[in-house]
Design brief:
Length: 108
Amino acid sequence: MLNSAPGAMVKETKMKGIHKAAGAGLTGTKMARRVGGVDEFDFKAIGENHNQGRLGVEILISGFVFEKEDFIRPWEGLNDNLERYSLQWESKNLIAVSTAIQDWLTSS
């Protein structure tokens, strides 16, 4: 009876490890499916207050982008004590969509 208790604990530990590994694999697969088509995703530091380890962080996302500078340009004038970062993602696609919307609005 004494020999079976440690054996059972080892089996239980192995099973927990297997379940954790399976869970991590499943999570990784789901995440890869969601972001698998994203080619560009980057945070660009804005201003002088970045990399100071502050709790206040501001992530800024541009809506209409006609050139790569438009990811940062609208946010440069802000003056606060936050670490500010601009999200630059899928710039080619966003520039194409922004240009198409602008063309559509000005054609009417």
